[in-house]
Design brief:
- The chain contains 8 helices and no strands.
- It has one domain (13-190): Up-down Bundle (Ferritin).
- The longest helix is centred in the first third of the chain and has 33 residues, at 13-45.
- Helix 2 runs antiparallel to helix 3 (50-69).
- By secondary structure, the chain is mainly alpha-helical.
- The protein binds fe (ii) ion (FE2) (2 copies).
- One fe (ii) ion binds at residues 31, 56, 60, 112, 144, 147.
- Keywords: Iron, Membrane, Metal-binding, Monooxygenase, Oxidoreductase, Transmembrane, Transmembrane helix, Ubiquinone biosynthesis.
- The chain crosses the membrane at residues 163-182.
- It comes from Microvirga terricola.
- This is Demethoxyubiquinone hydroxylase family protein.
Length: 195
């Protein structure tokens, strides 16, 4: 039988740190594309929310750059499936925006809350292993939380569509993160649960 806990204990944290950077950088890129598609549709259908979306997209552009800059000293490289994140983000943002402005905010809530959860796991892992990256992620997490709050506050109704869409979009985001970290997102969560 495989002893999972000793396998995890022997694992080189640098590998996980590289995966964290890779998935965060790719995720920010996906977020830029989600907001980009939403902005394109919103300009035509509900231009009043464009300024808020543009502000959030600017934050994601900044996060993406910060994660990219943190890569070289940790020998991390961008994700090889960036095009998938790009396409996935754009399609998700576009479809959500076609559903109307309420769906835009439901989509934003689902994605940002999944991101927030994963950053929480990463912070627990990094606290003792990479304090600099920990500080960077903590400051980014604050802005992601502001995006989440804005998305929640902008929803006029909280009906069936929200109840149905939240788990679907949140699940898709989790899946992309899990795939991009080769499953590391699960064991980081398991490790936190043990602590
Ligand atoms: Fe971000
Ligand atoms: Fe965000």
């Amino acid at each position: 039988m495989i002893d999972l806990s000793s396998k995890l204990a022997n694992r080189d944290p640098a590998i996980t740190i590289r995966r964290i950077l890779k998935v965060n950088h790719a995720g920010e890129f996906g977020a830029i594309r989600i907001y980009g598609a939403q902005i394109t549709v919103a300009r035509q259908l509900f231009p009043d929310i464009v300024p808020s979306l543009e502000e959030m997209r600017d934050d994601e552009i900044n996060h993406c750059r910060l994660f990219r800059e943190a890569m070289p000293t940790r020998s991390a490289k961008p994700c090889r499936i960036m095009s998938l994140w790009s396409l996935g983000g754009y399609v998700l943002g576009f479809l959500a925006a076609l559903g109307g402005r309420n769906t835009v905010w439901i989509c934003t809530e689902a994605v940002e809350s999944a991101v927030h959860r994963h950053l929480e796991d990463q912070l627990a892992f990094l606290a003792s292993r990479d304090p600099d990256l920990h500080a960077l992620i903590a400051s980014i997490q604050e802005q992601e939380l502001a995006h989440l709050n804005e998305a929640e506050n902008n929803q006029k109704r909280r009906g069936l569509s929200r109840a149905m869409l939240l788990p679907v979009i949140g699940g898709l985001t989790d899946l992309m993160i899990w795939l991009s970290t080769w499953g590391d997102s699960s064991w980081m969560r398991a490790e936190m649960a043990r602590a």
